[in-house]
């Protein structure tokens, strides 16, 4: 049994995750009540944000893909597309409110006369949203951006619901199930085996490839990013069916790497063709002798499944950090890069364009 030391490593991350479902629900409810433009006024929607503030956009866009009557585009760069205009709603998310790509994208959206809304805990983005009285959700401060995901995801989901892109309220049965899953994931210093901790024990010295499909595709990306930032380790995310047309080949025919592992993110209601793809990949990976993990979301709805596997991956990444004896919280090199870019003036330029 993998045991967790009574060490302080990870404590703040575990604390931030303690209210995971409550955070999602409260942010969703608050954002759903915002005075966003009514559906007939909006032809397309752009979500923009980077890193821990951008993944919520991928999650909402993937969940809304089945229901949204309007195109949703996720921008993780400095500029919104040229077709963005007065009939586009652009929702910017930046936990710090100071990320230069996001501020620049907002500046371009404003210059192209788009309707703008936003999510931030402060910074230049919040100053703009407040000053211009734009629809906005304020996240509480003092978390790492990625640890604020339930709030940022919930707020964006609430806004998406408000503008008619889909329904993102938690199903009651899913909520009960997710509460139980959450209890299981939380750290226990002694006693029963924990699935996420046990998996961390098997993965912490490897380079895992996380595989998912459909609305769970961004969840695989989240696992990869959380392993990168929290556990300070390399990880890959591969998306089906696309990965069957390229990444499958080295699993079958490539030379063995020293520390491979594959994690499949599955759901109880996956269509037959998806199951066939996972089964085939599992056989290929088993033939290679690489360790294979399969995690199945038992929730009934796509939203419940996403939250279930998000929680699992987030806890797994913090357990993995602890087992690697690294502090999951600081990501100093990202801060260093931001400081270096600040000297080059693009964030300053974006703030000037926004008048903040
Ligand atoms: O997790 C992190 O700390 C990063 O991925 C940040 O989210 C990213 O750098 C963007 O910063 P912010 O979330 O403040 O806009």
Can you characterise this structure?
The protein is of the alpha/beta class and 356 residues long. The chain has helices at residues 11-17, 20-32, 55-64, 100-111, 123-131, 149-162, 172-185, 195-203, 217-229, 248-253, 272-288, 302-323, 332-344, 346-354, and strands spanning 44-48, 72-75, 88-94, 115-120, 136-138, 207-213, 236-240, 260-267, 292-297. It has a 5-stranded parallel sheet with strand order 2-1-3-4-5, with helices on both faces. Strands 7-6-8-9 form a 4-stranded parallel sheet, sandwiched between helices. The longest helix is centred in the C-terminal third of the chain and has 22 residues, at 302-323. The model has no long low-confidence stretch (mean pLDDT 95). The chain binds 5-phosphoarabinonic acid. 5-phosphoarabinonic acid binds at residues 50-53, 94-96, 99, 102, 144-146, 229, 331, 334. 5-phosphoarabinonic acid binds next to loops.
Short account of what is shown:
It contains 14 helices and 9 strands.
Any chance you could write out the topology, listing elements then pairs?
Elements: H1 11-17, H2 20-32, E1 44-48, H3 55-64, E2 72-75, E3 88-94, H4 100-111, E4 115-120, H5 123-131, E5 136-138, H6 149-162, H7 172-185, H8 195-203, E6 207-213, H9 217-229, E7 236-240, H10 248-253, E8 260-267, H11 272-288, E9 292-297, H12 302-323, H13 332-344, H14 346-354
Parallel strand pairs: 1-2, 1-3, 3-4, 4-5, 6-7, 6-8, 8-9
Helix pairs in contact: 2-6, 3-6, 3-9, 4-14, 7-12, 8-12, 9-12
Bound molecules: 5-phosphoarabinonic acid (PA5).
